[in-house]
C-alpha cells in the first residue's frame, strides 16, 4: 500500500508514512473485507459507512501538516483507522462518531493496539465537538456537501481543516486555515469519496 499507492502520489511526510506502516489497516475492517483492506479504493464497513481510500486519506493528512502538539478532531471515526494513524502524529485526537456500534468498535480497536491519546466521543457528526474546541486540525472520514459553519468555528487560530467537498459533481479536496480570526479556503486536488451521514445538501423548497 505504502510503496504502490502512498509514495507515488506525492506523499513525502516520513512521520505519516511511518504511521501508515505500523497501523494494521485490516484490523479496522470486517473480517470479510480483510482481503481488500489495502486496495486503492474506499472499503465498505456496513451500514452505509466506508473507510477512506488509503491514498486520499494520506494526502489529506499530509496537507493538514499535523504537529506533535496539535489537538485534532476526526469527524466520523467509524472503526478507528484514521484516528489510530493520526494518533502517531498529533498530541491528542478526538474521534467523533455518531453510530453507537462503530463507537464501541472504535474504542475496542484502539485499546487493542495500546493507543491512549485518542478520546472517543459519541454524538452527531455534523455538530462537531464544541465542548472540546478549539482544535488545531479538523479532518473528515468522508465527503461533505460543504463544511458546516458550526464545525469551521471550532478551528483554532492557526488551525487547518481538510475535507473533500462533493456537491454532486467532481469532488475536490480543500484546505481551510484560520489566520487572524479569518478563514481562508483553497482547493488542493480533485477527489471523491462517499458522503458522511448528516452532511448531504439540505432539500430546498421549490414553487
Could you describe the 3D structure shown?
By secondary structure, the protein is an alpha/beta fold. It has one domain: 3-Layer(aba) Sandwich (Rossmann fold), CATH 3.40.50.150. Helix content is 23%, strand content 29%. It has a 7-stranded mixed sheet with strand order 5-4-3-6-7-8-9. Strands 1-2 form a two-stranded antiparallel ribbon. A hairpin with a 2-residue loop joins strand 1 and strand 2.
In short:
This protein is an alpha/beta fold and 207 residues long. It has 6 helices and 9 strands; from the N terminus they run H-H-E-E-H-E-H-E-H-E-E-H-E-E-E.
Q: What is the global morphology?
A: globular
Question: What is the CATH topology descriptor?
Answer: Rossmann fold
pLDDT average, as an integer? 93
Spatial strand arrangement across the major sheet: 5-4-3-6-7-8-9
Q: Helical content, roughly?
A: 10-25%
What is the CATH superfamily?
Answer: Vaccinia Virus protein VP39
Which features would summarize this protein structure in a list?
single chain, 207 residues, alpha/beta, Rossmann fold, two-stranded antiparallel ribbon
SSE layout and pairing:
Elements: H1 2-6, H2 14-22, E1 43-46, E2 49-51, H3 54-63, E3 71-75, H4 81-86, E4 92-97, H5 100-112, E5 118-122, E6 135-144, H6 149-152, E7 155-165, E8 172-179, E9 182-190
Parallel strand pairs: 3-4, 3-6, 4-5, 6-7
Antiparallel strand pairs: 1-2, 7-8, 8-9
Amino acid at each position: 500500500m505504502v510503496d504502490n499507492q502512498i509514495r507515488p502520489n506525492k506523499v513525502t511526510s516520513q512521520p505519516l508514512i511511518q504511521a501508515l506502516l505500523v497501523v494494521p489497516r485490516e484490523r479496522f475492517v470486517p473480517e470479510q473485507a480483510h482481503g481488500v483492506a489495502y486496495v486503492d479504493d474506499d472499503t465498505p464497513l456496513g451500514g452505509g459507512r466506508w473507510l477512506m481510500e488509503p491514498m486520499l486519506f494520506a494526502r489529506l493528512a499530509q496537507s493538514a501538516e499535523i504537529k506533535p502538539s496539535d489537538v485534532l478532531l476526526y469527524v466520523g471515526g467509524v472503526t478507528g483507522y484514521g484516528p489510530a494513524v493520526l494518533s502517531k502524529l498529533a498530541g491528542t485526537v478526538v474521534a467523533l462518531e455518531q453510530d453507537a456500534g462503530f463507537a464501541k468498535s472504535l474504542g475496542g480497536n484502539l485499546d487493542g493496539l495500546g493507543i491512549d491519546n485518542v478520546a472517543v466521543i459519541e454524538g452527531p457528526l455534523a455538530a462537531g465537538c464544541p465542548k472540546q474546541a478549539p482544535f488545531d486540525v479538523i479532518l473528515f472520514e468522508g465527503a461533505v456537501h460543504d463544511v458546516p459553519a458550526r464545525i469551521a468555528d471550532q478551528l483554532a487560530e492557526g488551525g487547518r481543516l481538510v475535507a473533500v467537498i462533493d456537491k454532486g459533481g467532481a469532488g475536490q479536496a480543500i484546505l481551510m486555515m484560520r489566520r487572524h480570526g479569518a478563514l481562508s479556503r483553497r482547493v488542493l486536488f480533485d477527489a471523491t469519496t462517499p458522503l458522511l451521514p448528516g452532511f448531504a445538501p439540505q432539500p430546498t423548497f421549490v414553487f
